[in-house]
Specification:
The complex is a heterodimer of chains A (110) and B (110). With 110 residues, chain A is mainly β. Chain A contains no helices and eleven strands. Classes of the chains: A mainly beta (110), B mainly beta (110).
């Protein structure tokens, strides 16, 4: 069966510091991978998605970036965090149509 | 573009039936998805409709009318644990991504 691992679960970072969130998927090959963000009390916003190694599509202009160095690894990064980057970050994968989510990382930028 | 509308909040009583509606606009429709999200947790997949009609899964059912751009999630024999947000999402053949509505927060009272 397929599993998705995302870490850390919670993160508190100062404004201007860098960010690296990592996500890995097990039990499948060549999945589509996604990063979503959910601000407090708001809906899921798609940030990035990837259909293969090195292929990244950005949905929203921002100071975040994503990379896919391996087939089942997806990384979300920032060089300098802003207060507005606070939120619940969710990595997800799909192989056919259904999207499955990791447990999420709650990021607080102070 | 894509647009998804669903009510922001609903309340219901334990043991009752509740229907959560979702209307959508998209090109290249490739499925209507329902997810459940408890507070502070990641969304979990509930149901998927790609053809018109009703799909039943235990206490939960989902209906789709593609010509009307309309779906609903029906929850029967409500339990306290059903208190959560319910997210409607639409897939498109034109993209490899799932776009989510802002979710309906359901509160079940004893």
């Amino acid at each position: 069966s397929q599993t998705i691992h995302q870490w850390p679960a919670t993160l508190v970072q100062p404004v201007g510091s860098p960010l690296s969130l990592e996500c890995t998927v097990e039990g499948t090959s060549n999945p589509n991978l996604y990063w979503y963000r959910q601000a407090a009390g708001r809906g899921l916003q798609l940030l990035f998605y990837s259909v293969g190694i090195g292929q990244i599509s950005s949905e929203v202009p921002q100071n975040l970036s994503a990379s896919r160095p391996q087939d089942r690894q997806f990384i979300l990064s920032s060089k300098k965090l802003l207060l507005s980057d606070s939120g619940f970050y969710l990595c997800a994968w799909s192989r056919t149509d259904v999207v499955y989510f990791g447990a999420g990382t709650r990021l607080s930028v102070l | 573009g894509q647009n998804i509308d669903q009510p922001t909040e609903m309340t219901a009583t334990e043991g009752a039936i509740v229907q959560i509606n979702c209307t959508y606009q998209t090109s290249g429709f490739n499925g209507l998805f329902w997810y459940q999200q408890h507070a502070g947790e990641a969304p979990t997949f509930l149901s998927y409709n790609v053809l018109d009609g009703l799909e039943e899964k235990g206490r939960f059912s989902s209906f789709l009318s593609r010509s009307k751009g309309y779906s609903y999630l029906l929850l029967k024999e409500l339990q306290m644990k059903d208190s959560a947000s319910y997210l409607c999402a639409v897939g498109s053949y034109n993209t490899d991504k799932l776009i989510f509505g802002t979710g309906t927060r359901l509160q079940v009272f004893p």
